[in-house]
């Protein structure tokens, strides 16, 4: 079976073996082998069927070697989903909604059907059987954009060379999962929360908002990371009096940062992300300790 099918089967197996929540991650280690052995021959054989080794009913060297190889396959695509699922229904973290909207505005004008074909902005329905992204699987979107310049597509302009592996790492089966807005957001969230774990936390947003913006710009070229300066170090403005943004990969006519909003707007959105996370943390604290005790607290931490 291919990797997405194997991930799904391993997730189901771990669930059947009693793993819960973040224990379910599709990776194989001593605990999975032990539980399969304790559950009986049928579960060991199911594990061996998934791994494509002889179904002896015994956790042998061949089984563990295949398990190690499977783990390497998962790591090669950056699969880190704990509490994993291959059913993506919606973006998981509402706190990221504002930042994702800014990224999408910079990259595509928040158009899930946007495609860059040899430097020319188009839409999916212009290039592939009048399909829109929501009607295409990940694999179909990959085929429609491969070999056509950058082929960057969707809200966040995924390039085809990265699309399938990012989908798998996000918990989406490229063969069956639709390339709709939910899937596109899930892939973007994966890049923010897992592939670059630690770079985009609320704490980082508070302590280093400029670094936060700079690292976002390292993933999405359209995100502004500062302003263009003249030889005296002053901000340059366009003909309409707007400050000119710069991006991480700015080149003449290529990979330019968006001018749809300013760098300061991006920094404000990053601060809003921190403030929303802080409010959520305070609300969680209130629920945990109760209204009465919460009311007597005098010093709420400024940092998460």
Task: Please provide a written account of the structure.
This protein has 3 domains: 3-76, no CATH class; 94-194, no CATH class; 196-304, no CATH class. It is 49% helix and 4% strand. It has 13 helices and 4 strands. The chain has helices at residues 3-16, 30-39, 41-51, 61-76, 97-108, 124-127, 138-145, 160-169, 181-195, 202-207, 209-219, 263-289, 291-295, and strands at 114-117, 120-123, 226-227, 245-246. A hairpin with a 2-residue loop joins strand 1 (114-117) and strand 2. The chain is globular, with a radius of gyration of 23 Å.
List keywords for this structure.
mainly alpha, two-stranded antiparallel ribbon, 13 helices, two-stranded antiparallel sheet, 304 residues, 49% helix
Q: Which structural class fits the helix and strand makeup?
A: mainly alpha
What is Rg?
23 Å
Helix/strand order, N-terminal first: HHHHHEEHHHHHHEEHH
What is the share of helical residues? Answer: 40-55%
Which secondary structure elements does this structure contain, and how are they paired or packed?
Blueprint: H1 3-16, H2 30-39, H3 41-51, H4 61-76, H5 97-108, E1 114-117, E2 120-123, H6 124-127, H7 138-145, H8 160-169, H9 181-195, H10 202-207, H11 209-219, E3 226-227, E4 245-246, H12 263-289, H13 291-295
Quick overview:
It contains 13 helices and 4 strands. By secondary structure, the protein is mostly helical.
